[in-house]
Amino acid sequence: MRLSLQTDYALRTLIYLAGRPGRHQVREVAEFFRISKDHVAKAVRRLAQQGYIRSVRGVGGGIELARSAESISIGQVVEDFEGSLALLDCVSIEGVCTIQPACGLRHVFAEAERRQLEYLNSVPLSQVVRPAGELQEFVLLDLN
Amino acid sequence: MRLSLQTDYALRTLIYLAGRPGRHQVREVAEFFRISKDHVAKAVRRLAQQGYIRSVRGVGGGIELARSAESISIGQVVEDFEGSLALLDCVSIEGVCTIQPACGLRHVFAEAERRQLEYLNSVPLSQVVRPAGELQEFVLLDLN
DNA sequence: TAAAAGAGGCATTTGAGGTGCATCTTTTGA
DNA sequence: TCAAAAGATGCACCTCAAATGCCTCTTTTA
Q: CA-to-C1' distance for B32 and D29, Å?
């Protein structure tokens, strides 16, 4: 019942980039969050494929937001990385439950999911980002 | 991102019982849903421990609802079986994310979870139950 | 006292996700 | 033109929670 680490890394990367305009390296992001570079790289690839970020290869390359932090919704990122948030198979897949036609559960969980996503979709990336200064300050504290 | 089968079985068992007053055997429930008796038995035990159903051992024993279908909320059952519905560790556990103090994500996902549970808590078991006739009808159809 | 029925524990399997590594491709600049 | 930087990609293994099945124990009734 929780988001995968991939989604977590993707969101963190977006937050990092949104708080620090310009181009940054995957290595830099990974070190900032103390995560393996490989994991960040995989989240980054998907983010690039889905158009959230732009990545540039080669010397001086790196990644940067491809869209404004205001236009990216947290819910959209979660959906792209998690697929459905369906709580039960019967919400998204046909023919799973023996009593399906007579069971109101399907509708109830679909509605629960809808309410959750509706809210997450209403939250733009920009809303969860704090100025880079605050992030930096905390990291320095943490390192001491 | 979905409920465990245990939770699924628990909900189905409750629906079965709510639609058919009186005492029923675990074996009967298992056969109705075409699930292994063992799995149902385990969900049943937890349901009994948490006071949703009453179980009676021995000859002529079985299980039955211990509370009214109106007083049992789907959300409560889900919480009891799934623990937290937190989407991210940082929502329910301290000290997971490096940037936690500067990250608005924690609050956002907590709110998303709250909205989902608020809805699920508002749905009573009685609302997702159809008369036994409907269930029976479908099963007969399915068996042909 | 035997049979019914739930309680409980254990051992195994399984699959998704996490993790690390090796290699390829692109790009730049000396 | 070539070496180094940096992202892209695929592969293999690991890990852990959930699922699964089985066996035995305990309670209850006729």
A: 26
